[in-house]
What we know:
By secondary structure, the protein is mainly β. It has a single domain (about 45-169), classed as Immunoglobulin-like. It is about 15% helix and about 45% strand. The chain has one helix at about 1-25, and strands at about 30, 35, 45, 50-60, 65-70, 80-85, 90-95, 100-105, 120, 125-130, 145-155, 160-169. The strands form three sheets. Strands 3-5-10-7-8 form a five-stranded antiparallel beta sheet, with no helix packed on it. Strands 4-12-11-6-9 form a five-stranded mixed beta sheet, with no helix packed on it. Strand 1 and strand 2 form a beta hairpin. InterPro entries: Ig-like_fold. It comes from Candidatus Daviesbacteria bacterium GW2011_GWB1_36_5. This is PF07610 family protein.
Amino acid sequence: MKTKKIIILTILAILGLFVWGYFSKGDTTASVQGVSKSNSSESSLTASEVFYNFGTISMKNGDVSKEFIITNSTLQDITLKTVLTSCMCTSAFIIEPSGGIKGPFKMPGMGFVPPANEIIGAGESRVVRVVYNPNAHGPAGVGQIDRFVNLTDSLGGKLQLEIKAFVTP
Length: 169
């Protein structure tokens, strides 16, 4: 009789936890490789393209890169405050008009990530070079990848660049 009571109480406790979990989940957002859903505004900076698919790439051929052109189409200067990537395998660089290069900008939590603090004048553009290292994850890194570079401006706006590839050995 005592065992039956313990079993019933255990079942009720488990059922109670499921009911509590179901009704307490509320409004949650998930984070994928350092990129989380954001309620912030769209950036005043624009890009003619924000997505690039490298297609099939081989680990043996090394890094691949894509240059995105970021434009300030407003009538005021905008400061590009931060440039952050979604994974350690991805780096971003700002190519300055003088030919200088700022960066590398990486994933938060994977070492020091400098602030970008790049002032982009009204009507001016900058090149953001995104570099993907297909060897960063070793043999486990083959298959489809989807990585992001998040740019935050001084007005709190965000612009996201995306790269995809299918990685083979």
